[in-house]
TrEMBL record:
<dbReference type="InterPro" id="IPR039563">
    <property type="entry name" value="Peptidase_C39_single_dom"/>
</dbReference>
<feature type="domain" description="Peptidase C39-like">
    <location>
        <begin position="7"/>
        <end position="119"/>
    </location>
</feature>
<dbReference type="InterPro" id="IPR039564">
    <property type="entry name" value="Peptidase_C39-like"/>
</dbReference>
<dbReference type="InterPro" id="IPR011990">
    <property type="entry name" value="TPR-like_helical_dom_sf"/>
</dbReference>
<dbReference type="Pfam" id="PF13432">
    <property type="entry name" value="TPR_16"/>
</dbReference>
<protein>
    <submittedName>
        <fullName>Tetratricopeptide (TPR) repeat protein</fullName>
    </submittedName>
</protein>
<dbReference type="Pfam" id="PF13529">
    <property type="entry name" value="Peptidase_C39_2"/>
</dbReference>
Length: 277
């Protein structure tokens, strides 16, 4: 596509608030309104005069979204714009030895003019040459971030393990219930993904749904017979469900798969329950 322009609401950026402002713009594009001040309270580091990438990603997750870093290359960035996803980028507007960090939002491009279009500072949809943008982006480490809804299928550009790590991080920050739809979306995209099966099994277990937890752990253990974690989790659920024979089989498999202390502990619990019968 020779050119593309996304409709992204614009919010002027003060120097120290460029991170919160950039995130507020991308959230607004997804119909979620959060004030810059509220985001700034979460992510600003006064001693640094702004926000680090880590704080920005944590703030994304606190809002209930996945923070997914794109591949550090211009074609990857243009692909996301083509797909309708604005990208938060980190730029260094000064020098490597005396950096001036700045977050902007890439909203479009024009191949015929070799230009990137972005919200930056106090002006919306600025047109920068590819060369200018590449220089400043290179100094910023070619860092680009997507803000993804956990309820949507992973982008076709998503790398499987990187996406699942983003889901794990979302669960850690905002809780398993928030991450659950992202695991479900991941399993639709990658039906054999072990991390997604384990994640869904653990969420079901935390919700006291042993039947559903058993189904996910059974699927994980069957499709990934070398996974000690899947075997051990299945053994634990079978034990709590009263299926001691099944629990014994899978606890042994977990130990043999080098599941370490957790697997040995589960096997010990199963043996104790069998002896108590």
């Amino acid at each position: 596509m020779p050119e593309k322009q996304l409709m992204v609401p614009f919010i002027p950026q003060d120097d120290a608030y460029c991170g919160p402002s950039a995130l507020a713009m991308v959230l607004a594009q997804q119909n979620k309104t959060v004030s810059v001040a509220a985001l700034a309270d979460e992510m600003l580091l006064p001693a640094r005069g702004g926000s680090l990438q880590t704080e920005l990603k944590v703030s994304v997750r606190r809002q209930g979204y996945l923070a997914y870093e794109i591949a550090p290359e211009l074609p990857a960035l243009l692909h996301e714009i083509d797909a309708g996803r604005p990208v938060i980028v980190l730029l260094n507007l000064a020098f490597n030895w005396y950096p001036k960090w700045h977050y902007a939002v890439v909203t479009g491009y024009d191949l015929s003019k070799q230009e990137i279009i972005l919200h930056s500072g106090f002006e919306a949809n600025q047109h920068w040459s590819f060369t200018q943008f590449e220089n400043l982006w290179q100094r910023g480490g070619r860092w680009g971030l997507l803000v993804l809804s956990p309820h949507q299928l992973p982008p076709d550009s998503a790398q499987e393990q990187r996406y699942l790590q983003a889901v794990l991080d979302l669960g850690t920050t905002s809780g398993p219930d928030v991450a659950q739809p992202a695991y479900q979306a991941a399993i639709q995209r990658w039906p054999d993904n072990l991390t997604a099966m384990i994640g869904l099994g653990l969420i079901a277990y935390q919700q006291h749904d042993l039947v559903l937890a058993r189904q996910w752990f059974q699927q994980a253990a069957t499709q990934h017979p070398d996974s000690a974690v899947a075997a051990n989790n299945l053994a634990q659920v079978l034990l709590e469900s009263g299926d001691l024979a099944g629990a014994f089989v899978w606890a042994q498999k977990a130990v043999l798969a080098d599941g370490g202390a957790p697997a040995r502990d589960t096997l010990s619990q199963v043996l104790h329950a069998l002896h108590a019968e």
